[in-house]
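HUMAN: Quick job: go over this next protein and say how the chain folds.
***
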Amino acid sequence: MNSRLSVAAVSAVSLVALMGGTTVATAQEPDPAPKSCDGVRLTGELPAPAPGQAVSGQITIGPDCEPELGSVRRGPASDRPAHTAATATTTTTTAAATAAGHQLRGWNEMYDCCNIRMTGLYTASSWDTADGRVTTAGTTATQEWNREPWDAGWSLTSQTAQDDCATDCAEVNSEAHADFAYQGVFDPTGDWYDNTHHSSVQLKADGTASCRFDVELRHTFVGWNWRYGCE
């Protein structure tokens, strides 16, 4: 049974019945069968934290197919999953990324109800500043996805990444996108699930930055959770 998703707040539901003049409140019974939900677009925006710190958010698809927003978390950068740090640094090969200056890494991940990361988009940015300008800048993007043992599961179908400026800039806006399709044990047709991740970073001449993330899901499932953040 599909249920339409929205970003409205989740509220508890109770059933009130009149029995022999007595009002009885009965909690709604949970649906014992896991539910597949219709598609949704989720959005998160975070200010870049101080060096050595990380900031992150999470949204979970609740039992009634409504998105449940978690609190924004702040803490040391080491609190992030180790594989995210490794992913975001493996392909940082631009001259700007190797220069001494400001660094920013971001992650944009979709997990299933069993805490398995299905799809993920990662960015690594670096920029130098002088005299109120961004002198050099660059952002690289990498992607990861989960495969099933029988050569099935998620696959990357398209990806793009670009900076609107690279040298002598007032500011730099970097955009990365990745589209993933699924064909496997949960859908042998390949027509049901599709995750599209968007990550944007703004690098400023004063050394500050901001991170914005979006994910579009063709269909989702109760318990899926989206995790995003930057450091």
Q: What stands out?
A: Helices lie at 82-90, 95-98.
